[in-house]
Specification:
The complex is a heterodimer of chains A (about 375) and B (about 400). With about 375 residues, chain A is of the alpha+beta class. Chain A has three domains: about 110 residues, Butyryl-Coa Dehydrogenase, subunit A, domain 1 (Orthogonal Bundle), CATH 1.10.540; about 100 residues, Butyryl-CoA Dehydrogenase, subunit A, domain 2, CATH 2.40.110; about 140 residues, Butyryl-CoA Dehydrogenase, subunit A, domain 3 (Up-down Bundle). Helices cover about 50% and strands about 20% of the residues of chain A. Chain A has eleven helices and ten strands. In chain A, α8 runs antiparallel to α9. The radius of gyration of chain B is 22 Å and the shape is globular. Chain B folds into three domains: about 120 residues, Acyl-CoA dehydrogenase/oxidase, N-terminal domain (Butyryl-Coa Dehydrogenase, subunit A, domain 1), CATH 1.10.540; about 110 residues, Butyryl-CoA Dehydrogenase, subunit A, domain 2 (Beta Barrel); about 140 residues, Butyryl-CoA Dehydrogenase, subunit A, domain 3 (Up-down Bundle), CATH 1.20.140. The two termini of chain B are about 35 Å apart. Chain B has about 400 residues and is an alpha+beta fold. In chain B, strands 1-4-5-8 form a four-stranded mixed sheet. In chain B, strands 2-3-7-6 form a four-stranded antiparallel sheet, with no helix packed on it. The chains are: A alpha+beta (about 375), B alpha+beta (about 400).
Chain lengths: ~375, ~400
């Protein structure tokens, strides 16, 4: 039921041209669609009722991301109410949660999360960015964060720094006004064209009150959130993969060459089946991780297996899809390229197959 | 099979290398890695013409230098390594001239060959083969040329025409026999069409890397003179198949992403030197070594086809194998580079965080086209299966 309502809304609101239009717009996403999603309660799908949420399960949210992956709707849903919402809930004071979480769920406040260093690496365990205590209640921050989604559109940004000071050290979460003095944002042109930025902190003064959670625990908070984020990313990839198979099979059924449908050729059929095997495999491995998270079970290995698999399966599927579409798939006017780009960008986010396979190997040794 | 080079060939390679090094240092062009010899510079082509490097392997009686295909491949390898801007003369030199030498009239040879060899202003060609409904099934072309007095009238649409927006001339495959009892492959002819003729409309197509390389070209009652027919009427498909061997026998498909490959190798060396995570370095070395092996195989496959051409053999199957091997390798080069460089590899050129001086993200996007152009991998497999291995068609 939930899936059907997600799918109906998204296919109606987000035809392919909307994706490119949004990427090319100043904001990067449609505020009209954003408001509608907020009214439907989707921004608070997994949050508690008392904050305006829907008390849904993680699995519900996973399904939503699978459906989003099919249409590639650009929005801050992933980064703001979901990832930052979880982080705030875990680290914020009661006052802060009461003030921020309902606003995130209503879509009126946007937060972003900066996880990657100046080389694009996820560095939560020992951030390449330092905060030095300059007075009893202030810190001075220097460093660079890359690939921060919607940084310019967000009201505030959460990030993790290494505290370097007497008696207090370690990875620590801060939040900062996204237009604070000394904070420079540069738009990054990327494969997908989504709004993403470099953030340069140049002697940025920040009050100690902006610390989120315990000092030295930033990486611990991020770990649980990035685990869930990684699985949601797998959901989005599964959705994208599913759509590529559907588009390609549809295309080769219609496309006439050699006086017959292209899809009647065995060489083409076998490639379609290869895609279909990848799809079914991706579905089960991704859902396994999603179900375990939903039930609160440990799933270190299952998560790693899911992301390692999705990275390769989605990319390979887009390669086959492109190959079977021929030249038309390589044009901007046909929307297959959106998935080709999304597959590579997703593979590059929340760690590579190499990284996750190493986790799998360590888990079984 | 002798795959070694003579002293003269090694010296020639050095001569080409010195030339490109000097040109790079002079800032004539910058290394890029996207469109298939998309960068066109008449200035650069004129320099090559002066050295006799356009038409290097055409016979001397046809305005060429009479050098071997291996020599030509040595030259191209060095030029492709830095992606020199060959676009102005490239298709004329590689494809049009050899076809004219084999099938063209005296007028064709007299008129076009010196122009191509000297990179004169009006000597740029594009290939008008594919149509919306004739892609892999090339014989299904439905653009028509109908005889009218001493001329032909062209009507129809071509697509995926690389460089069409820059070309003076089009090399076109059209239908000339409309008798339905005659099979398609005996109904096509080749013409040269002046793209400035009335009735020609060229519409650029934006590709998924956001760039313009190929075009749609429309013909609305375009009149061409009879002398622009190349070879025999209704023999066009047979002629084109022979030309495709020349297209596929080249090294451009292996070399287009050489700049990326070479940057990747440098990156690997730097990673190892800087003491990056040993497990990751081990994995990168394994993967890069695999590419190095494949790159060497690809290179030898290409030289083998050149050697066959020089010995008077037609390398249909070998050229198809070389091309499919090389195009698939090129895709893996870009893919591996993104994996090794990680998340920053999705950042396109124009900002300081772009990881390579060549736009790797754009190269990854172009990668989708390599296994399609000049015969998709599937068509090449058909050629090898049926013409190489002699497997039955049905």
């Amino acid at each position: 039921m939930l899936r059907k309502s997600f799918a109906e809304f998204l296919s109606k609101e987000c035809p392919a041209e909307t994706v490119t239009e949004n990427h090319n717009s100043k904001r990067g996403y449609s505020s009209a669609i954003w408001k509608k999603m907020a009214r439907l309660g989707w921004l608070g799908l997994v949050h508690e009722d008392k904050y305006g949420g829907m008390d849904g399960s993680f699995l519900d949210l996973f399904i939503l991301f699978e459906e989003i992956g099919k249409v590639l709707l650009p929005s801050p849903l992933f980064i703001s109410p979901t990832l930052c919402g979880w982080l705030l809930k875990e680290t914020g004071t009661t006052e802060l949660i009461n003030e921020y979480l309902p606003a995130l769920i209503e879509g009126k406040k946007i937060l972003s999360l900066a996880l990657q260093d100046e080389q694009g690496k996820y560095d939560a365990d020992s951030p390449h960015m330092t905060a030095v205590k300059t007075s009893a209640a202030t810190y001075c921050i220097n460093g660079t964060r890359l690939l921060v989604p919607y940084a310019e559109q967000a009201d505030e940004i959460i990030f993790c720094v290494t505290l370097a000071g007497e008696g207090e050290n370690g990875p620590t979460l801060f939040r900062i006004d996204s237009h604070a003095d000394g904070l420079k944002q540069t738009f990054l042109p990327t494969l997908t064209g989504e709004k993403t930025y470099a953030l340069i902190f140049d002697d940025v003064e920040i009050p100690a009150a902006n610390i989120l959670g315990q000092i030295g625990q930033g990486n611990v908070y991020l770990k649980s959130v990035t685990a869930k984020a990684t699985v949601l990313k797998c959901g989005e990839m599964l959705g994208g993969l599913e759509r590529v198979v559907e588009m390609t099979v549809g295309y080769v059924k219609d496309r006439q060459q050699f006086g017959r449908p292209l899809g009647s050729l065995q060489a083409v059929q076998h490639q379609c089946v290869d895609m279909s095997v990848l799809l079914e495999a991706t579905r089960v491995i991704a859902y396994q991780a999603a179900c375990l998270i939903s039930e609160g079970e440990p799933c270190h290995k299952e998560l790693a297996m899911a992301k390692a698999w999705c990275n390769d399966a989605y990319r390979i599927t887009t390669w086959i899809g492109q190959q079977l579409h021929g030249g038309i798939g390589f044009t901007e006017e046909y929307n297959l390229h959106l998935y080709y780009k999304h597959a590579k960008a997703s593979e590059l986010s929340f760690e590579s197959s190499w990284y996750h396979k190493r986790t799998v190997a360590n888990e079984i040794s | 099979m002798d795959l070694s080079f003579t002293k003269e060939q090694e010296a020639f390679r050095q001569e080409v290398r010195d030339f490109v090094t000097a040109e790079l240092e002079a800032g004539t062009f910058a290394i890029s890695s996207t469109g298939l010899v998309a960068e066109a510079s008449r200035e650069f082509s004129l320099k090559m013409a002066e050295k006799g490097w356009i038409g290097l392997s055409w016979p001397t009686e046809c305005y060429g230098q009479g050098r071997s295909y291996v020599d030509k491949m040595i030259m191209n390898e060095e030029l492709f390594k830095v992606q020199a801007p060959l676009g102005f003369h490239f298709l004329g030199d590689r494809q049009v001239a050899p076809a004219l030498i084999e099938f063209g009239s005296d007028w064709h040879k007299e008129y076009f060959l010196p122009r191509i060899a000297n990179a004169t202003e009006d000597s740029t060609f594009c290939l008008l083969f594919s149509e919306p409904n004739a892609g892999s099934d090339l014989v299904a072309v439905s653009t028509t040329a109908v005889e009218e007095g001493d001329a032909y009238i062209l009507n129809g649409q071509k697509t995926w025409t690389s460089g069409g927006h820059l070309a003076d001339w089009g090399w076109i495959l059209v239908q000339t026999n409309f008798d339905e009892s005659v099979p398609n492959h005996k109904s096509c002819s080749e013409f040269i069409v002046d793209l400035k003729s009335p009735g020609v409309t060229i519409r650029p197509i934006i590709n998924s890397a956001g760039e313009v390389d190929f075009n749609e070209v429309f013909f609305d009652n375009v009149k061409i003179e009879r002398k622009n027919l190349v070879g025999k009427v209704n023999d066009g498909f047979k002629q084109i198949m022979a030309q495709m061997d020349f297209e596929r026998a080249g090294m451009e498909r292996l070399m287009q992403n050489y700049p990326i490959y070479s940057l990747l190798v440098d990156h690997m060396k730097a990673m190892v030197a800087s003491g990056e995570n040993g497990e990751f370095c081990g994995w990168v070395k394994d993967q890069v070594a695999q590419l190095e092996i494949e790159y060497n195989i690809g290179r030898l496959l290409c030289y083998r086809t050149a050697w066959m051409i020089d010995s008077g053999k037609r390398p249909t199957s070998q050229a198809a194998i070389a091309k499919m091997f090389c195009t698939q390798l090129e895709q893996r080069v870009n893919d591996l580079a993104t994996k090794v460089l990680g998340p920053v590899s999705q950042i396109r050129e124009g900002v300081e965080w772009t990881p390579f001086p060549v736009d790797l993200a754009a190269c990854y996007l172009w990668g989708a086209s390599y296994t399609l152009q000049g015969g998709s991998v599937e068509i090449l497999k058909n050629i090898v299966a049926q013409r190489g291995l002699g497997l039955p068609r049905r």
